[in-house]
Sequence to fold (800 residues):
Amino acid sequence: MSASSAVARASASPLRPLAALLLAAGLHGAALASPASDIADLKKALAAMKSDYDKRLGALESQLKDTQAELAKAKAANAANAPVAAASAAAPAPLPAVAETPAAVAPAPAPVAAVDVSGNAPNGSSGGGSFNPQISLILSGTYAHTSQDPGQARITGFALPPGAQVGVGSRGFSLAESELALAANIDPWLAGNINLSIGGDNSIEAEEAFITTTTLPSGLVLKAGRFFSGIGYLNSQHSHTWDFVDNPIAYQAMLGTQYADDGVQLHWLAPTDTYMEFGLEAGRGRGFPGDDGSRNAAGMTAFTFHTGGDIGDSISWRGGLSLLQASANDQTLVQDADGTLEASALFNGRTRVVVADGVMKWAPNGNATRTYFKLQGEWLQSRRGGNLDGVPGGPLALHQVQSGGYIQGVWQFMPMWRVGLRTERLDPGRENWALAPGVGDDFHPTKNSVMLDFSESEFARIRLQFAQDRTRQGFVDNQWLLQYQTSLGAHGAHAY
Amino acid sequence: MTSLFKTSSLAAFVLAAAATLPAHAAVKVLACEPEWGALATELGGDLVDVGVATSAMQDPHQVQAKPSLISRARNADMVACTGAELEIGWLPVLLQQSGNPKIQAGQPGNFAAADFVRKLDVPKQVDRSQGDVHPDGNPHIQTDPRNIALVASALGARLAQVDPAHAAQYKQRLDAFSAKWQANMARWARQGAPLKGVTIAAHHKAYAYMEDWLGLAEVAVLEPKPGVEPSASHLEEVLNTLKSRPARMVIYSAYQDAKPDEWLSDHAHIPAVKLPFTVGGTDGAKDLTGLFDDTLARLLGALK
Fold:
């Protein structure tokens, strides 16, 4: 509701009792005039009075609104013109005015200072949508051409929950992932944010939905709700900011594509010249490697550390080390056994994932408008400890160490055009399941991708990607992906 | 063991305290662009410790919220930026990640220069089909010295508000700066008189305020839409436009790629003039006075 209509209503309200009184009197009078009066007549009279009253109220309201709007306009015009009028003073031509009246600018401090000292200077946009949340919509679509059936995609040697997302998803045209995000300050101390992802299967998922503090002292920021964990580099980034169509296979194999959780996160930025950020997270363990189990204690805890800085004017970098720990009770895990068979078991225990990440960006003089180069890599190690049930001879003690990572480079070689190269490799570890002995021995899933993208503007990009995917033993999947990504609405600022 | 723990925790505490306390009590100002850094230095002198987030070689629209900037925002007492959505692609992230309540929007420590001047090119309709338009108007306000004067008054008052213990000194410095600036503006007005009515082509719509100040007439813009790089076909169109309405020169900013401007210079037989755009953009633009001295010298040089 706009302020002006609120004012109109507030000022109209004193009239209400009066109108009610008049109505009552009228009713009373009518009743007196003809004791056997027709109720219908009364109703008619009442309705007429009501409509008359509504009309007058409406007129009053609109009048008030107009007056207010005019007032606001006049104020704005005043504020905008006063200093400028002072600066360009008497003569219409700005140049001589300044030349002839050296004192022209001197009077300006008064009004400006008056506005300023109040601390209420309008910051940022003052458009009609000021009180609405910032809305941004990411529209994205993909065409995929693959030599293998995406339904058969597996990462040999890595056990995942049934239905875990692996590979490109689906062949042919698909909506991929479109996102709707709303963000706004809630009050002077909190801000809120929601990010809904619309999948190709008509599902809507709250990717993130959190509140965050804006005024905690000493570099502290507290977040609560559903959020992407701050581990690693790519984990906290929405898919529309990725440089490749899909996320790395190490993320698919060890973090269930991207780790989001319901919980709390505390960030602390050290008061040092060198960037040093520490984060603590606790959550329910909603996604893999957690099991979304029913427990009072946190199913996931994480610690993150990131540091970074500049090397000269042209290079900036960030590196980090994170640890995520998630518990699981009777978590069903499925694993590619021999190409046709799948082995499943129940896992009890905990998984610790260590992520080391680094990114370096180079642009001549730090100006990335024309050309830049971005080098990025992450290495993940997953240690699973506990026991396996539901397997022959079970429960078996399990201690498994798996790892993998990627390294990628993206080069904007001319305005609007970028090429990228990514190479990935996973190590399933030696401690495999007893169910399928021999499967996956000495096999390392790998994938190499190359992409070319064109951004016709800051808000629209089209990308062609080719990947050779050797993540399933005995299969080579040649994937061609064509993708568009567009951004509508609020001009979202992106993290480093 | 206990005493060792005590000693080490005490040491850690002292270290942490030493890291938290600033070495001297100067007001830490993080300026988003070099012109506001220069202005804060003029108005604050030794009372302020000014850091600048971007250089004249960077496109202020396209800056990354990189780690070094987040740290500087974390430790700042005040940010001095242009506003009018110029920094929309990076400043909100800096503010959010800084965990610094002093510099959040609405606080005295959040200064937006564009709030204190009359803005040009305010679009009647905000639609991205028009390119990267700024709904609050053209944000490149620093190309007109009259705007610098207005912002100086506001920034001086704001520094006094953030650091009231030194209010009198800020007032003094502001008065001194204003007097100097008056004299400068009178001189620039005389020097710039021959530029009145001169037609120009511009690479980006970055000089609306300068054109307004000097009475220059912009007849063509090389970017087909704001923020969209000039294409070969659009340059041909610009060249055709210039046949019916010739420009005396084509101007571009130090951070921009000069190729389209040089192409136009060759084909339309007009000089391509590199302007500093902000402090540090050229060797001559060492400070705010130098910025306008050098800008005028380059424009006047192209008339000869």
In short: Chain A touches chain B through 81 residues (CB under 8 Å). Residues 1-35, 77-129 of chain A have pLDDT under 50 and may be disordered.
